[in-house]
Amino acid sequence: MINLKKFLPTLSLLAFLAIWQGLSVYLDSNALPTPEVVARVFWQACVSGQLPFHLGVTLLRLVVSFAIAMLLGCAIGIVLGRNKKLDAFFDNWLVIFLNIPALVTIILCYVWFGLVESAAILAVVINKLPNVVVTIREGTRMLDQDLLDMARCYHFGKRKTLVHVIWPQLHPFVMGATRSGLALIWKIILVVELLGRSNGMGYQLHLFFQLFDVAGILAYTIAFVAVIQLIELLILKPLDKKALRWRR
Amino acid sequence: MTDIRIHIHNKTYPAAAGPSIVDLKLSLNSEEFICLVGPSGCGKTTLLNIIAGLDNDYDGEILVGQQHAHPKIGYVFQNPRLLPWRTVRENIELTLDKHQAPDVIDAMLEAMQLTAAQHSYPEHLSLGMSRRVAIIRAFAIDPEVLLMDEPFVSLDAPTARQVRELLLDLWQQRPHTILFVTHDLREAIALADRLIFLSAAPMQVVSEIIVPIPRNERGNELAIESFRQQLLKNHPEIQQLL
After folding, report:
1. Residue closest to B34 by CA, chosen among B153, B145, B170
2. Contacts of A77 (CB under 8 A, 6+ apart)
3. Is the peptide bond before B143 cis (omega within 30 degrees of 0)?
4. Hey, of B45, B81, B90, which one would you mutate to test binding to chain A, going by the most A CBs within 10 A of its CB?
């Protein structure tokens, strides 16, 4: 039983590939190439440097916009969570920004600031920011007042209180915002690139769409999913483990 | 060390029917161990929070020596309030300046029998151990007043007794002014130089009694018990406060 459980993830992946293969052979159409064809396209795109280049450009945009959204979002979230008056004032703004469709902000940013890199980044940040603010604000509202009183009574000061008392309590919320944020930003960046950039994954996918190159689309999608998995395994999981080592 | 005088004219909670503290005067002599004894809910925690500067919504003054000021406070809360993501040692070090001599902490850990547990996280400690850590943390900052809010409540009798003796040992090594809140008269007699009895709604001082039992006989249950009997007989007004 234990052995079976261990192999289940591999087994499910093989089953997925088998179904894909079966379907594409059965349909026998350009609309669904076999895994083998996709793998070959993937390999060629890697060797030619096309895929690494576009993936790299997209990743760079991801890192920059993610960093800005998280830093700003955490700061604003903590302030709103700690200050009832500001929170009451800005609550409506948050609801508005949370509900503006991503496409609208992207188009407006391009219209107002032109088809430039900063407009692209800004559009992504505006889409992600309210999300982070809301999550961190909820976390800040749930801070343990007893520990904050302890810190005040022992004269921890602002910096020490933030680093040693507040931040560890916010950690689960920050990780939640990071995970949901990465997933959201990936998707938005592609639209941003499709609409107004001449490089990156979104631009490349747009090109494949016009050429009706499904193998190319699938090859890029695989690269994309693989990178997200790597980020999860190499960065997020170890961060979780380190931050929660004190738990029983 | 300096003497501290506290005079609270009035403390009223907005939602409460009447004031919870009216015209309360306390004077704490330097290096004196004082136990505040009173019924639960009479406002003892409120009083400690006022002295600690956590509650500033009151009418009154606190004098350290001749100056109006909040004394430097070490606070042992009823719940230990350790940071769960920091080890025992880190919890103590965090309250200190960066370059404090580590041997001071070593000595206190030793005195409180926590040397072996110094790198454990609080979630792995028993309640008695967590309370001892909280006591070290309060002593470590060299406070002008050490506030202790029923720190031994919900410990079983032998553990409470053990921690009490460790506390007295530590206090004799590092004498500080202590304001210790309890509703257990035996515990108060075992610890205090002076007992202050408080009434509820509003809180007022009912009587102040010096405990004459010498320090080296505080472990003697019989001496404690006979003083308790005598106290209750001579001061009938105390009985309704317990």
Report:
1. B145
2. A132, A133, A134, A135, A136, A137, A139, A140
3. no
4. B81
pTM for the whole structure: 0.80
Interface touch B83/A165, C-beta < 8 Å: yes
CB within 8 Å: A147 and B81: yes
Ordered structural domains, chain B, with CATH: 1-72+181-242 (3.40.50.300)
Quote the tokens at residue A93.
């703004």
- A45-97 pLDDT, tens digit per residue, is 999 999 999 999 999 999 999 999 999 999 999 999 989 999 999 999 999 99
Question: In this complex, do A154 and B141 lie within 8 Å of one another by their Cβ atoms?
Answer: yes
Q: What domains does chain A contain, in order, with CATH numbers?
A: 72-184 (1.10.3720.10), 198-241 (no CATH)
B123 interaction partners in chain A (CB closer than 8 Å): 246-248
B70 in contact with A at a CB cutoff of 8 Å? no
User: Torsions phi, psi of B145, nearest 5?
Assistant: -135, 135
Closest chain B CA to residue A244: B85
The tokens of A163 are what?
């680093």
Q: DSSP secondary-structure letter at B97?
A: -
Residue type, B165: E
The tens digit of pLDDT for each residue in A111-144 reads 999 999 999 999 999 999 999 999 999 999 999 9
* Nearest CB partner across the interface for A248, out of B54, B75, B124: B124
> How far apart are alpha carbons B163 and B151 in whole angstroms?
10
d(CA A95, CA B104): 53
Q: Any alpha helices (H) in A49-154, and if so which ranges? A: 50-82, 84-99, 102-113, 117-141, 145-153
Tell me which residue in A149, A160, A164 faces B54 most closely, judged by beta carbons: A149
Q: How far apart are CA B168 and CA B152, in angstroms?
A: 13
Q: B102 is written with which tokens?
A: 């580590």
Cα A69 versus chain centre, distance? 11
